[in-house]
Amino acid sequence: MITMVQKIKLESLAQRGLNLFFSLLLLCLLKHIPHLFLRWEGYSHRLAGACHLSWLLFGISFLLSPSPLASSSTTSWMYQCVMYDIILGVLGTLTTLTAARDFPHRRITNAPGQSGTLSHVAIVTQNEMIEHSFYQGLNLVQALYLHGMSWWNIHRGEEESSGSGSGSGS
């Protein structure tokens, strides 16, 4: 069983790890902004990627220092998490679809058994990008399923606890 002191130490360690990750990510991002976002080639993909990355950074920053306006109720927190995950899933799917449009690679054929994402000599084909967008959408569906199960479990517990004290038995 974890004591309260151990739990606080673990949370502090996790907080420091998240701070380190966030700092390193920001340093890399700042160093490469011109290459990542300021070129005209593939502009819609760069814009979608910038929005996706910004949304991820917003989520990390919210975890590091929650807004004073944020409600402390579980229901409100769950709504915020669901909305965050929906927007994240849509932005991830949009980023892959804009990559497929901006960098089509329709005529590319890799050697049998080579995938553009797994081989250093292969190029990601348009079909692979479209397939990746499907998996981004599937990730969103899975996240919504998990949120739905959590929501159902919480409300089922509330109904059982309020119903068990009613004394409706004979």
In brief, what are we looking at here?
The chain folds into two domains: 1-38; 40-155. The protein has four helices and no strands. The protein has helices spanning 4-37, 43-64, 74-102, 126-164.
Break the fold down into its secondary structure elements and pairings.
Blueprint: H1 4-37, H2 43-64, H3 74-102, H4 126-164
Describe the fold and architecture.
The chain is mostly helical and 170 residues long. It has helices spanning 4-37, 43-64, 74-102, 126-164. It folds into two domains: 1-38; 40-155. It has four helices and no strands. The longest helix has 39 residues, at 126-164. The relative contact order is 0.08. The mean pLDDT is 83. Keywords: Membrane, Transmembrane, Transmembrane helix.
Radius of gyration: 22 Å
Global outline = globular
Strand content: under 5%
Count of distinct structural domains: 2
Please bin the fraction of helical residues.
over 70%
Distance between the first and last residues' Cα: 41 Å
Order of helices and strands: HHHH
Mean pLDDT score: 83
Point out poorly predicted stretches.
Answer: none
Secondary-structure-based class equals mainly alpha
Query: How many strands?
Result: 0
Q: Count of helical segments?
A: 4
Major beta sheet summary = none
Keywords:
about 170 residues, globular, single chain, about 75% helix, 4 helices, mainly alpha, 2 domains
